[in-house]
What we know:
It is a multi-pass membrane protein. The protein is mainly α. The chain contains four helices and no strands. Helix 1 crosses helix 2, helix 2 runs antiparallel to helix 3 and helix 3 runs antiparallel to helix 4. Adenosine-5'-triphosphate binds next to helix 2 and helix 4.
Amino acid sequence: MTNEKFSFRARVDSFGYAFKGIRNLLRYEHNAIIHLIATAVIIIAGLWLKIERWEWIVIVMAVGFVWVTEILNTCVERIMDFISTEQHPKIGVIKDLAAGAVLIAALTAVVAGAFIFIPKIIALL
Ligand SMILES: Nc1ncnc2c1ncn2[C@@H]1O[C@H](COP(=O)(O)OP(=O)(O)OP(=O)(O)O)[C@@H](O)[C@H]1O
């Protein structure tokens, strides 16, 4: 928040910075590649099994939740590594808490996906 006048150009630049962050995530965070593969598999499965509109909404929310927590977890890891490269139990706890958020998001997505996909897969058998 600044007192500068609204600038459309500055807003466009902000989007650019955000995409730069996402590129950085995909380049340096191995977990992000796993999320990318999982996202692709879910989209293909959704198209193949012709899931309904409301089911797509659930999937989009669940997948987005995982990506957001992964990015925030990466931020926490990088902040802690920037503050200190030393080993410290408090840094470990902070990193583990952030990792726990990703785990909960991923489990939430798995459960939501199971409710949507398992009945459709069973129906195909
Ligand atoms: N500076 C530190 N001091 C104390 N414990 C740390 C420190 N850095 C990491 N740890 C702990 O060591 C363990 C492994 O950390 P690490 O960052 O390698 O986890 P990871 O999730 O496998 O990493 P990545 O996200 O890079 O794959 C975790 O329990 C973490 O909290």
